[in-house]
């Protein structure tokens, strides 16, 4: 054994040679075969010393230069060709999963040997261990030259994956009734299938339509799940990713069920709300949210496009500023809508910033005037300018009203609250005057860039007129 003085690479080669011989001679007992594979599985967790797994022919001395793939062929034979010995097959698949993860060339070797087809066929199994291992292997193969069309068309890959997701959905429904504990392998298996679904729909979008049958089952699983903190972590992130590339048009009855049209979108808003809480969005978490949160926000925007009137009204109610919030300039406070507005200016989350602006624009029915009224010109201007969307001059008129109440189109605050809060200049401290001047400078610069009106920044005019004085 390697732990008893035998070098790891030598012991790995010995195991591969023993298993290869036994395929021909069948001298090992099932227990010995499994024991060898279990030992090999431990070694295969690190690439160093496992060259014999990745070779095509195990010949010559230990130091010989091997061609690529021999151990892979041996493990494929044990894992796929004889499934009557389940323990042997499962351990071989575990060794394969480890090896494909650590050796990219081995993925193409497995495909060239024809075992991707067998992995797809075998995914029909309802055993969680099989589902996890086969899902992991097929997922890794998507990063090689995998014939996805052949697997989908000739080996029922999409159908088998849809069936796997449906089985998980059924388990969720039963577990909800009986409150039985979650099997950890169930979560691992589901995660691999969802990852595989995302990769296939990403690398081969033409086949995305084949996975639309899984939409109601994925949302059923998501709704049955108690959220962790922060909510955007596996497997929730993979459920959202899995539907991100799917077509929502034509699936409205799945997304907005008649008995509860807001059920699914409510869960997504709950996930978003929890993800944007201050404690879940510290500095180091903003980069992670940029990737995961932008997918969530994109899915919500796609859902709004096909939503029922009731669901659209619900989304606007939950995500846009309320009348109560307009007692102050928008973006202040800790409401979900305020946090969304602040996300549109978040430098550390560039992708989420753009997708948030797009979602809020969707909620405004793609109407730039309504968009400015809903979120204030200060937040709307960046999105409109970066997308080349002209600003209607009337949207910045002081007579703009929302639900019959006059508002400041720049800040989104009601004029009544603005007048009440406005402090006379004589009562302001120097610090307050500086803050007001800074806000005015920023707003005038944004207004200038729109080209809607020809306006000169009063601070700039003061400097040119010699009325600007340096202070200690």
Question: How would you portray this structure in words?
Answer:
Keywords: Chaperone, Guanine-nucleotide releasing factor. Belongs to the synembryn family. This is Guanine nucleotide exchange factor. The protein has 472 residues and is an all-alpha fold. It has a domain at 423-464. 61% of the residues lie in helices and 1% in strands. The chain contains 23 helices and two strands. Strand 1 (401-402) and strand 2 (405-406) form a beta hairpin. Helix 7 packs parallel to helix 10, helix 11 packs antiparallel against helix 12 and helix 15 runs parallel beside helix 18 (350-363).
What can be said about this structure in brief?
GO terms for molecular function: G-protein alpha-subunit binding; guanyl-nucleotide exchange factor activity. With 472 residues, the chain is mostly helical.
SSE layout and pairing:
Layout: H1 8-25, H2 30-43, H3 70-81, H4 86-102, H5 104-112, H6 115-122, H7 128-141, H8 148-154, H9 157-178, H10 184-203, H11 215-223, H12 236-244, H13 252-255, H14 263-275, H15 283-306, H16 309-319, H17 336-343, H18 350-363, H19 368-375, H20 377-386, E1 401-402, E2 405-406, H21 415-421, H22 430-450, H23 458-464
Antiparallel strand pairs: 1-2
């Amino acid at each position: 054994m390697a732990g008893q003085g035998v070098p790891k690479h030598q012991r790995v080669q010995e195991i591969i040679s023993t298993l290869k011989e036994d395929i021909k001679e069948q001298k090992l007992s099932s227990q010995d075969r499994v024991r060898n594979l279990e030992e090999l599985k431990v070694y295969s967790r690190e690439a160093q010393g496992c060259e014999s797994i990745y070779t095509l022919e195990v010949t010559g001395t230990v130091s010989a230069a091997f061609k690529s793939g021999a151990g892979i062929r041996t493990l494929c034979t044990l894992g796929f060709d004889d499934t009557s010995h389940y323990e042997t097959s499962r351990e071989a698949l575990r060794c394969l999963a480890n090896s494909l993860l650590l050796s990219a060339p081995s993925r193409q070797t497995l495909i060239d040997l024809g075992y991707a087809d067998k992995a797809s066929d075998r995914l029909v199994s309802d055993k969680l261990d099989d589902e996890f291992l086969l899902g992991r292997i097929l997922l890794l193969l998507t990063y090689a030259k995998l014939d996805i069309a052949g697997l989908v068309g000739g080996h029922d890959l999409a159908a088998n994956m849809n069936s796997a997701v449906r089985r998980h959905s059924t388990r969720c429904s039963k577990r909800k009734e009986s409150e039985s504990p979650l099997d950890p392998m169930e979560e691992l298996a589901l995660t691999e299938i969802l990852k595989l679904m995302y990769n296939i729909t990403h690398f081969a979008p033409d086949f995305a339509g084949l996975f639309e049958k899984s939409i109601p089952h994925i949302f059923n699983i998501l709704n049955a799940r108690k959220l962790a903190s922060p909510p955007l972590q596996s497997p929730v992130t993979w459920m959202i990713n899995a539907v991100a590339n799917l077509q929502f048009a034509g699936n409205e009855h799945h997304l907005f069920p008649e008995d509860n049209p807001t059920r699914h979108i409510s869960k997504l808003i709950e996930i978003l709300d929890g993800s944007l809480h201050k404690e879940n969005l510290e500095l180091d978490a903003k980069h992670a949210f940029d990737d995961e949160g932008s997918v969530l926000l994109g899915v919500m925007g796609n859902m709004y496009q096909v939503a029922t009137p009731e669901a659209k009204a619900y989304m606007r109610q939950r995500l846009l500023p309320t009348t109560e919030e307009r007692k102050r300039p928008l973006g202040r406070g800790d409401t979900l809508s305020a946090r969304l507005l602040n996300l549109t200016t978040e430098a550390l989350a560039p992708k989420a910033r753009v997708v948030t602006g797009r979602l809020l624009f969707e909620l405004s029915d793609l109407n730039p005037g309504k968009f400015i009224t809903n979120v204030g010109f200060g937040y709307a201007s960046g999105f409109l300018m970066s997308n080349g969307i002209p600003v209607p001059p009337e949207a910045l008129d002081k007579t703009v009203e929302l639900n019959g109440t006059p508002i400041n189109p720049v800040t989104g605050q009601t004029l009544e609250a603005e007048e009440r809060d406005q402090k006379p200049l004589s009562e302001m401290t120097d610090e307050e005057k500086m803050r007001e001047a800074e806000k005015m400078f920023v707003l005038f610069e944004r207004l200038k860039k729109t080209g809607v009106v020809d306006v000169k920044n009063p601070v700039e005019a003061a400097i040119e007129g010699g009325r600007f004085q340096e202070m200690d």
